[in-house]
Inverse folding.
């Protein structure tokens, strides 16, 4: 197993703070960008990211859209850890952005995230209405522009987003849509393949989305009807006797998000990570994407 050390680059995309300079990436390097709405959403891809960085020697960066200040509903277990009344919205809005970024980076250190881009849009209340988020809560044009700038900075092969299923937090869906739009605005030769992810359960095919085709009203989210989701198996063995697997890595990352009390219930409920191929991608990239997931399944 290849091992790497990581000194993160942190971009606040207004002002930029660099922990270490990042060299230009070569054409032969695997580069992946994860785009999420909240600081704990990275758990959706944790096992895949770990194998990319630790076995395939790839680079993974993460763009976080919101400031994470809205995650106070189930924060009571973290109150004695941080010495703050984190279920009080006023207290949470002040302190959670910094706390949750530290938690995110602690989890990122486990799975090997290299660079962080913090866009700091407002993390308001739960809603499933994408239009309200894109029109009234976030500066959608600025987010789209900043994501495009990030994608221009490194030649990413893939961008991982959450699959924008209808009955889902609109922040997740909006982040995915803006990432898709940003990728499609790049010159064709620079566009990464955007994949929509959702956890699944190999023993229960009804767990998670089963018949997703696109989010109503957003044709950019249409997935290839002739292409089933690619799958990363979290139960792949990490030890010769098979007792250690990638679910342990997922749990390690989840445990870093101590301010988010339901993480263990939600993010490790399944044993597979699934990735849908959006129809907006270059169809010629389908074969290469299939080969990429075969590498993830077989590389030791």
């Amino acid at each position: 197993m290849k091992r790497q050390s990581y000194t993160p680059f942190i971009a606040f995309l207004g002002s930029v703070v660099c922990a270490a300079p990042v060299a230009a990436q070569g054409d032969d390097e695997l580069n992946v960008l994860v785009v999420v709405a909240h600081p704990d959403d990275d758990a959706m891809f944790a096992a895949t990211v770990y194998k990319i960085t630790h076995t395939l020697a790839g680079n993974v960066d993460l763009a976080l859209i919101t400031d994470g200040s809205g995650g106070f509903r189930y924060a009571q277990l973290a109150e004695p850890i941080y010495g703050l009344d984190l279920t009080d919205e006023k207290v949470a809005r002040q302190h959670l952005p910094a706390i949750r970024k530290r938690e995110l980076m602690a989890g990122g250190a486990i799975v090997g995230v290299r660079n962080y881009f913090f866009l700091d849009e407002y993390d308001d209340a739960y809603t499933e209405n994408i239009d309200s988020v894109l029109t009234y809560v976030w500066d959608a044009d600025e987010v789209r522009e900043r994501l495009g700038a990030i994608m221009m900075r490194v030649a990413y092969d893939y961008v991982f987003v959450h699959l924008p299923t209808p009955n889902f937090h609109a922040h997740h869906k909006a982040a995915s849509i803006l990432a898709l739009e940003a990728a499609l605005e790049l010159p064709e030769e620079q566009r990464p393949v955007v994949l929509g992810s959702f956890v699944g359960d190999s023993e229960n095919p009804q767990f998670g989305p089963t018949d997703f085709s696109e989010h109503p009203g957003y044709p950019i989210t249409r997935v290839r009807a002739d292409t089933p989701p690619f799958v990363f198996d979290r139960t792949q063995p990490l030890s010769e006797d098979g007792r250690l697997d990638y679910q342990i890595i997922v749990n390690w990352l989840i445990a870093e998000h101590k301010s988010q009390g339901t993480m263990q219930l939600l993010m490790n409920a399944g044993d597979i990570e699934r990735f849908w191929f959006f129809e907006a991608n270059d169809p010629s990239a389908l074969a290469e994407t299939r080969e990429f997931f075969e590498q993830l399944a077989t590389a030791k």
Summary: Residues 89-111 form the longest helix (23 residues). Strands lie at 9-11, 16-17, 31-36, 59-66, 113-121, 158-162, 193-200, 230-233, 272-277. The first strand starts at residue 9 and ends at 11. Residues 173 and 236 are 29 Å apart (CA to CA).
